[in-house]
Amino acid sequence: MELLSYILEQAINGLQIGAVYALIALGYTMVYGVLRLINFAHGDIFMFGSFTAYFLISKWHLPIYLVFPITVFATALLGYAVEKIAYKPLRSAPRISLLITAVGVSLFLEYFLSLKGLFGPDYIAFPRPFDVRVFDLKLFSVTNIQLIIFSVTAVSLLLLYLLVYKTRQGRAMRAVSHDPEVAALMGINIDGIISFTFIVGTGLAGIGGILYAFAYPQINVFMGIMPGIKSFIAAVLGGIGLIHGAVVGGIIIGVLEVFVSAFLSSTFRDGVIFIVLLLVLLLRPNGLFGRRIEKL
Amino acid sequence: MLIKVCGLRAAYGAVEVLHGIDIEADRGEVLSIIGANGAGKTTLLKTIAGVVRATSGEIIYEEKKITNERSDRIVRTGIALVPEGRRVFPDLTVRDNLRLGAYTLRNRRLKKDLLDLVLETFPKLRERLWQHAGTLSGGEQQMLAVGRAIMANPRLLLLDEPSMGLSPLMTQEIFSLVRKINSEKAISMILVEQNAHMALEFSHRTYVLENGAIVMSGESSKVKSDPAVLAAYFGG
Fold first, then answer.
1. Which of left, alpha, beta for B233 (phi over 0: left; psi -120 to 50: alpha)?
2. ipTM of model
3. Which of B51, B90, B101 sits opposite A186 (nearest CB)?
4. B3-233 adopts what CATH topology?
5. pLDDT digits (tens, 9 = 90+) for B215-228
């Protein structure tokens, strides 16, 4: 009985981080879908979200219901700008140039923002705008942070689903990700859809950034690297380019990571995730839900 | 004059594929362009549709120059391409494929009328409306590709090898349905075909394309009985 409740508790913890990975992985997968690019700067945009929320809460004392939309707006704006400035001029360049540029953007964001007077290089305590409360549900317990993370993630996923599958814009996104040339023949402005996809994907990373900081309230300009890589692995695990794949992949990676920490050792935590990446690439390179293999 | 192509040249990298093409079509007219594999037929349609860039020459459509416009803008002027190999969106439903065809249209009434027209012309699509396009047969996918282009409310329809991979019976069926659309809706068409027999039957006028240049043109009935064409396409 005690073991069961321990397992359940760890599963909840895994879902907590898995939800954040899912939100970040969506950005990777959607951008890959329309541009065939792994946006390595995506983890840094997630970090930018945490910092935006930090400034809004600790410097401006804004209420939480304003922190979410403003942060999403800020990360989406950054994502839009990165695409316009760094990626769009390379539209007809070889794909490797785009990939290298993405790495460059990532390093630029990290080291430029780590300057004193901007975000700085140090760890900063993130002030949660509420007290932590634990609800004991007999078999296991949940915190109000976890409830917030689950509900905000669920609402975000629902809105994303409606956007992608029920709107004209969403149909255009899917068309571009299947076949950009034919999508253009339908009258779809490809560049417009790419911009829009960046806005949506980086907006979701912003939400992830807030939620992550709620759960792990220590933020730093390099905090996006590890969650970024793990979310990328989650997107590959689910099948890059697939929205449901990113969600399932994120949750699997989150739960796995927590279970490894709980039952093995936290030293193995990151290593196991990279072993997952290697196994996926070796055994099922198109991911759990992928059908065809896309060449990078 | 609906469309006039003058001295059109196009290249893939350093290799020129079209060496100065001149063709023109009137309103309501059906043109066919026949020629061997690699003659540049597909490239010609793709250049008109803005997928391939022209290196020189002009495309005048409804008195406006549309050379090297982006393909999403060309659709808005009223030119729709049915691409070679159909290229429907396999993971989207038939309905979503058709709705994407009407992406540029805002008028609900018009979209509904077009959908009715497409579903009346191709009743098989109505039965498959909620199926993924990838599950359709080749012939049904070709109907969907044509229907999707019709949904853009074009005045000029470009058809690239609609008979490819289809049985003769299915080819016949699709051609007669497309013909019906042409006569009822006065949509002009430029048809590119390897199946010279079908193309000559179907069109008012025909151009013969060889190695990126037009070598013959005229009324399809006359081209059909030309000795050189008979020798090249009908084995003497």
1. alpha
2. 0.92
3. B101
4. Rossmann fold (3.40.50)
5. 999 999 999 888 88
